[in-house]
Design brief:
One of its GO terms (cellular component) is membrane. One of its GO terms (molecular function) is carbohydrate transmembrane transporter activity. About 80% of the residues lie in helices and about 0% in strands. The protein is built from 22 helices and no strands. The relative contact order is 0.15.
């Protein structure tokens, strides 16, 4: 199954261009996340909001993104991956304009929530589109571009905080938030020049168009024909019909059955896949990354950095670290493998989070400023961000986008994204309350403990998918599920 390994291992430039354009939507999301960490410092000062309102402002985007992601799965199945990205761009545009206007807390929340719906759409469809465009050998690279886009956006947001923060209080944070409207508008037009996902076209019965797209995103016609045969087989299209230009799309009954196959009566294979997809999205945020990304200035203040300008400058270091290690991971994922990166990354996170917890605890109980403890906090903060973004961050999106069967992929993936946004919101909206209850050092010890649980989850439940076609991955989980049901011991990381 699958085309020539040699041909598939060479990056197709058109497929790369398609994935880069699709990933622009995640740059905008990353910008919104990064810029809010600094903007909140100024919003607190001008609008005189309390810590509870700050937590709501931080987390409301992800609550709304949860609903956006659940809608996006069905939307992308109905109107296609490409037009769903256009819709996400328009929603982002409206949200950015509202936040940039922001005359009061209510309007600001409304804009943040609107942008959140766009986030849900973006995080659901961009990785799915990239994974469906890519060949098996380059899918890890292309499907991780959206996560790279998020890191670029976060870095741009931090830089924006530093420079716009020098403007007047009334103007600075509004420009920080409103400027995201410009790339949103550009993307809405740019994505229309990209092709539709060949897998979505096949699901709609538009076989001739799918062949044309595959010819463009594959290096040889042999590879294109091989992928076409694999996808039509996975879609359940009769072998006699694959030479037709158009066949009948799935019936409404088949579309309605998707949720039943996912949640009500899943097969052992689908149940296994769903558990892994939900688990990896849960642990991505339950291990505390949003606390560092969104509340970096507060953490640095607790560590002993008193100057507002220096705290914003220190967050740029977080953004640079995030971008650097996501960039490296993007190039090594298809060589090292998803599973190995996951296990190494999460093990390193346990150490870094425990170190940060120790450093913050020392600072909190010290009666005078301890330079060594401040340096320790900074080092472990950057180390945590580096390790997280070298493994768990990019693998979450690549792995969960590639493991679902074709007919369940968009909506199954949307469930994972909904869990991702829910956990992001939980951490965003509770971090201040938690550290007030158990100390800020204790909070990071808690995240270290959760990371230990995550490591065991991935060790026992996440097989390696490196180098396999999307259709082969389904077979991998089918064998895994069958072996588990029959009581056969499964060696972690093997194809079973």
């Amino acid at each position: 199954m699958g085309g020539s390994g040699e041909n598939q291992s060479t990056m197709n430039r058109y497929a790369l261009a398609c994935s880069i354009v699709a990933s622009v939507i995640t740059i905008i999301f990353g910008y919104d996340t990064g810029v809010m960490s600094g903007a909140m410092v100024f919003i607190e000062e001008e609008l005189k909001i309390n810590d509870g309102q700050v937590e709501v402002l931080a987390g409301i985007l992800n609550i709304c993104a949860l609903f956006g992601s659940l809608i996006a799965g069905r939307t992308s199945d109905y109107i296609g991956r490409r037009y769903t990205i256009v819709l996400a761009s328009i929603i982002f545009l409206v949200g950015s304009v509202l936040m940039g206007y922001g005359p009061n807390y209510g309007i600001l929340l409304a804009g943040r929530c609107t942008a959140g719906i766009g986030v849900g759409f973006a995080l659901t469809v961009a990785p799915v589109y990239s994974s469906e465009i890519a060949s098996a050998k380059t899918r890890g690279f292309l499907a991780s571009l959206p996560e790279l886009g998020i890191s670029i956006g976060v870095l741009l947001g931090y830089v924006s905080n530093y420079f716009f923060g020098k403007l007047t209080l009334k103007l600075g944070w509004r420009l920080m938030l409103g400027v995201a409207a410009i790339p949103s508008l550009g993307l809405a037009f740019g994505i229309l020049k990209m092709p539709e996902s060949p897998r979505w076209l096949i699901l709609q019965g538009r076989l001739r168009e799918a062949r044309e797209v595959l010819s463009d995103v594959c290096n040889t016609q042999e590879e294109a024909d091989s992928r076409f045969r694999d996808i039509t087989a996975a879609a359940g299209i009769d072998g006699k019909a694959i030479n037709e230009d158009v066949v009948g799309p799935p019936s409404n009954k088949e579309e309605e059955a998707v949720w039943k196959q996912l949640l009500i009566r899943p097969t052992p294979t689908v149940r296994w896949i769903l558990i892994v997809a939900v688990g990896i999205h849960f642990f991505e945020h339950a291990t505390g990354i949003e606390a560092v990304i969104l509340y970096g200035p507060r953490i640095f203040k607790k560590a002993g950095v008193q100057s507002k300008s220096k705290r914003l400058l220190a967050t740029i270091g977080i953004g640079l670290t995030k971008f650097t290690f996501i960039f490296i991971s993007t190039f090594i994922m298809d060589k090292v493998g998803r599973r190995r990166l996951l296990l190494l990354s999460v093990a390193g996170m346990v150490i870094a989070l425990a170190g940060l917890g120790f450093g913050l605890t020392v600072v909190e109980h010290a009666k005078e400023k301890l330079t060594w403890a401040l340096v320790l906090c900074l080092v472990f903060t950057y180390l945590y961000v580096a390790i997280f973004n070298s493994g768990l961050a990019p693998v979450t999106w690549v792995y969960s986008a590639e493991i679902f069967p074709l007919k369940l992929r968009a909506q199954g993936y949307s469930i994972g994204v909904a869990v991702n946004r829910l956990m992001n919101a939980v951490i965003s909206m509770s971090f201040i309350s938690i550290y007030k209850a158990i100390t800020i050092g204790g909070t990071f010890f808690m995240f270290a403990g959760i990371s230990v649980v995550a490591w065991w989850f991935f060790y026992f439940l996440a097989p390696e998918t490196k180098g396999k076609s999307l259709e082969e991955i389904e077979a991998l989980f089918t064998r895994s599920a069958r072996a588990k049901d029959e009581g056969v011991e499964i060696q972690p990381g093997n194809s079973v």
